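Case study 2.
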Amino acid sequence: MIAKRTLIIINPISGTQNKAFIERLLENHLPENQFNYTIEYTVGPTHATDLAAAAAKDGFDLVIAVGGDGTINETATGLIGTDTALGIIPVGSGNGLGRHLRIPMSPSKAIKTFSESEVIKIDVCTANGLPFFNVAGVGYDALVAHKFAQMKSRGLSTYIFNVANQWFRYKPKKYKIKTEQGKFKTRALMISMANGSQFGNNAWIAPKARLDDGLIDVCMLTKFNTFAAPTLAYQLFNKTIDRSKYLETFRSAHFTVKQKSKIAHLDGEPFKLGKKIEFKVLPKALNIFVPKAFLHELHTEYSLSKFE
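Prediction:
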């Protein structure tokens, strides 16, 4: 067996954990006979993209991102359209893509899965040409992402505080949406563009979303009264939000959203994309390392779909 040439990119400031222990975990749990690895630490924005792109150009088999969804986004961006696969050790605040892929949240357990992981191809989505791999959004969650990025502390408790702090002052906004089937207007608290199924922390905004179907699940959350909030929260964490009368959805590979604001988020990271955002899908443009648990789930879904 020839060991895979592997680059491990660590974001030292993602999430809430100090990353000094990661090197020790790699030494203990990543077999040298399977992975010939080197480690690089990021020093600023887009550095992970540059490191990943250079590794792909140099013929590396695998680039592993150690961080949250933002770090994963930057690393994966450098690998789009290449033969080099993305691996994930999720140590961020939400870890949406990692959770969708059934990667363990324990770093040591995540590292152990690499020995039996396999490569699959997934879609890459773009918003005005900028890639995202899990979930993008406009409206309320985009505002939360912008406010969260400005806060000094990270983690789930900080995120929940930020969500609650913005909630009572935020009003639904008007949007114009154009798809290949036609145009329509809507008023929504937020619109989420889902390639993966969840925001992170097991909050499932698009329970039936697939990473390889060539489509974006567009989830439009309409206005609801305060009394409905507990039920919606339960549905969000119970993978049944798609049954709510307050959530309207459609799937598309190419559409535009017009808004009054200019802000959006891509994989939880804040961006100013403008008042008109064009969304597209690049089918199966990224190779990604996934654990056996996710492969088993895919095979089960495929088997069941044949009988539907």
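The first helix runs from residue 20 to 29.
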